[in-house]
Structures are given as structure tokens and as C-alpha cells.
Write a structure and sequence with these properties.
This protein is of the alpha+beta class and 237 residues long. It is 36% helix and 17% strand. The relative contact order is 0.16.
Length: 237
């Protein structure tokens, strides 16, 4: 009997999948965003805005409000009213009739009637004469004794309305005729700087959008120009 030997066919391992040429090229590169504005730019914008608001507030306190209400801005120069009104405090004194003054009010009065020198102290006593006249006794909060002279109604200039610490030195610096041109010039310069900062920020944002759009368009153009890969098993020409 003749034995038949069967030989098994060799097993072929599957060929590794061939990479398709141009597949990587079909993937559009992610657009790279240009760097944003530096932190210093936005910090400068915030600081300029804060300074602008401060100048506007000072203009209101020093010029607009006193002029509209007929009040007088004054600067505390001595320590007689500490701690309530330390030196350098801006006080706004509003006109008041002598009959409206009460004990405890902080009032500005002329040292001598008709002269420019004034004192701002607190009323500690009000006296009335038999003839109906009134006199006022004043004392500084930081003084141990009352003011030497009694004050007549004709010397009263006004009662304290509001005060702002430290701004009195600014009031002294821009007092008189210089106030009419210093504040508008400073405010105008700050407005111009703010406009420049906003305009430069808008231009930067526009350029960023244009660069991003150009990057996307360039990626799409590269995809369109890449030839389609040959299908598996198709004859080569």
C-alpha cells in the first residue's frame, strides 16, 4: 500500500497595511493663534481708566459742586481739628444762616469781619443777649481751650458740608487761575490716551482674526491641492 504524504501549504502572514500616501497631508493643520496683547497693555489701560475717573471726580469735588451750590473749597492747614480734619483735608463749606447753626456743628468763620483769614472749628456754645443778638463760642477738637474771642453772626462764612482727606493739597496746587486750565488739559490728555489704548486693542483684535482666517484658508488650499490616493488593487499606470 502506497502511503500518500500530504504537505500542508505554507501559511502566509497577512501583509502589513500599507500607509496611504498623502493621508497625513489631508489633515488640515490647526491654525496657530497669534500671541495676545501683553499683560502690560491691559494693566496700562486699567491704570489710565482709574486715573481718568480720579481726575473727573476731583474736578467735580473742586470745581463743579462748589460752583453749583455756592460753596467754598478750603484746605485744612493745621492740626487743631484732628483727628476729624487732619492737615491736607479738603473741606467744602456751604453757606448757612446763623439761626441754622447748632452746638456741635463745624463752622468756618472770619477771624476779623471783612478780612480773608478764616478758622474752621466746632461750635461749643451759643449765647443770646437781651437784645436778641447771638454770639458763638468755638473750639478745635484737638485744642485744650476754646477760641479766645466770641464770634458774631456777621463773621460766619458757612458750615462744613463734606470733606475729602489729602485732596486739600491738590486744591492748593491748582488754586486760582491755574485751576481753569490745568484740570481740562489733564482730562483731555487722559481721554486721548484712553482712546489710543482702545483703538490699538481693536486693531490688534482685528489683525488676530485676519491671521486666523488666513491660516484656515491656507490649510484648506493644501488639502485641495493634494492628489487622491490610489485605491487598493487598482492597476498602476
Amino acid at each position: 500500500m502506497t502511503s500518500t504524504q500530504l504537505q500542508s501549504a505554507p501559511e502566509h502572514s497577512p501583509a502589513p497595511a500599507a500607509s496611504v500616501p498623502g493621508a497625513a497631508a489631508n489633515e488640515a493643520p490647526a491654525p496657530v493663534d497669534p500671541p495676545d496683547k501683553s499683560l502690560l497693555h491691559y494693566l496700562g489701560l486699567a491704570v489710565s481708566g482709574a486715573v481718568l475717573l480720579l481726575v473727573v471726580a476731583l474736578a467735580l469735588l473742586l470745581i463743579v459742586v462748589p460752583k453749583v451750590t455756592g460753596s467754598t473749597p478750603l484746605t485744612v492747614l493745621t492740626s487743631s481739628m484732628e483727628p476729624t480734619l487732619p492737615p491736607g483735608t479738603l473741606i467744602i463749606v456751604r453757606p448757612v444762616t446763623p439761626d441754622e447753626i447748632r452746638i456741635g456743628d463745624v463752622v468756618t468763620y472770619q477771624i476779623r469781619s471783612g478780612e480773608p483769614g478764616v478758622i474752621t472749628h466746632r461750635v461749643t456754645a451759643i449765647s443770646s443777649s437781651s437784645e436778641g443778638g447771638r454770639t458763638f463760642t468755638f473750639k478745635g477738637d484737638n485744642n485744650s481751650v476754646a477760641d479766645a474771642d466770641q464770634v458774631l453772626p456777621v463773621q460766619i462764612q458757612g458750615r462744613l458740608w463734606y470733606s475729602v482727606p489729602w485732596v486739600g493739597w491738590v486744591n492748593n496746587a491748582v488754586n486760582g487761575q491755574s485751576r481753569s486750565w490745568i484740570v481740562p488739559i489733564v482730562a483731555g490728555l487722559l481721554f486721548a490716551y484712553m482712546g489710543y489704548m482702545f483703538a490699538s486693542g481693536a486693531v490688534c483684535a482685528l489683525r488676530k482674526r485676519r491671521r486666523a482666517a488666513a491660516a484656515v484658508a491656507a490649510g484648506a488650499a493644501r488639502i485641495a491641492s493634494t492628489p487622491e490616493p490610489a485605491a487598493p488593487g487598482s492597476p498602476l499606470r
